[in-house]
Hydroxymethylglutaryl-CoA lyase
Amino acid sequence: MDISSRKITVKEVGPRDGLQNESVFVPTADKIAWINQLSRTGVSYIEITSFVHPKWIPALSDAVEVAQGIERAPGVTYGALVPNARGLERALLANIDDAAVFMSASETHNQKNINKSIEDTFPILKETAQAALAAQKTVRGYISTVFGCPYEGNVKIDAVIRVAENLLEMGIQEISLGDTIGIAHPRQVQEVLEVLLKRFPAERLAMHFHNTYGMALANTLVSVEMGISTFDSAVGGLGGCPYAPGASGNMATEDLLYMLHGMGMTTGIESTKMLEAARFLQGKMGKKFSSHQMQIGE
C-alpha cells in the first residue's frame, strides 16, 4: 500500500491519558491554557479529562472546571473518559462532545482497573454508551491490554474480538486498540491486525501505542501500511497506566508528526505549534519530557 499523501487523524490524549498518572497536580488554569494551545495546533480531537471519580484519579479531579473553562475552537472535538452513567452525567453537564468508555481484553487487568469482571462491565458500558448517543454525543471505546497484560501475559486475539464486537453492538463508533504496557512489536501488530481487519473495517479502528520498548513509531508505521488511519498520542510522551506496572508514556505527538509529515502524510496539525504546547507544559510541570524532539530541544 502506498502510504504517501495519506490523511492521518491524530487524536491528542495528553490532557487525560498523559496527566492521569502524574503525582504532581497541574493547576487547573495551566491545564486550561495548555488545552487552549492544543486547540490552535490544527488537531481535530483532544481528550481533555476524565470523569472517573476523583478519588481514583486525583490528578484530574478538576474535570468539570477544565471542561467548562476551555475555549472551544471550531472543528475540534473535545472528548473525555467516562466510566459509567454517573460519570457521563457530569461529562454532559460539562458539555463534552465525545464520550470514551473503556475496558480490558484481559480479565485480571479489567478487575484491577474497573473492579469488575469483563462480563459485568458490558452492561455498564452499554448503558453509558446509549445515554451518550441519546444526548447526541459520539462514543469511542478503549480496549486495554490488546497486545499483552501485566498480570496475564499474552492475550488471546479471541478475547479482543469478543470485547470489540460487544462494544460495536452498543453503537460505539470507534474502537481504540491499546498497547497498554508498550510491549507490542511490528510483527505482533501485523498479526493482530490481519485478524481484526477481516472482521472490522479499518475506519472503525484506532491504535493507541505506549512506548515502553521504543516500538510505538514502528508499530504505527505497520498499522498505517495495513490501512489504519487514526492514532492516539500524547504531547511529550506523557502517560502511563496506574494499573499497568512498568508501563511508560504514550507515543509522543511531536515525534509522531515528525515521522508522518516527513513521509509525506498529512495530519492538518502544525508541528511547530504542537512543540510550543509541549514546551509550555514542560515548563509548568518542571520536568524533562521523554519525547525525542523535546530531548534534543528542537
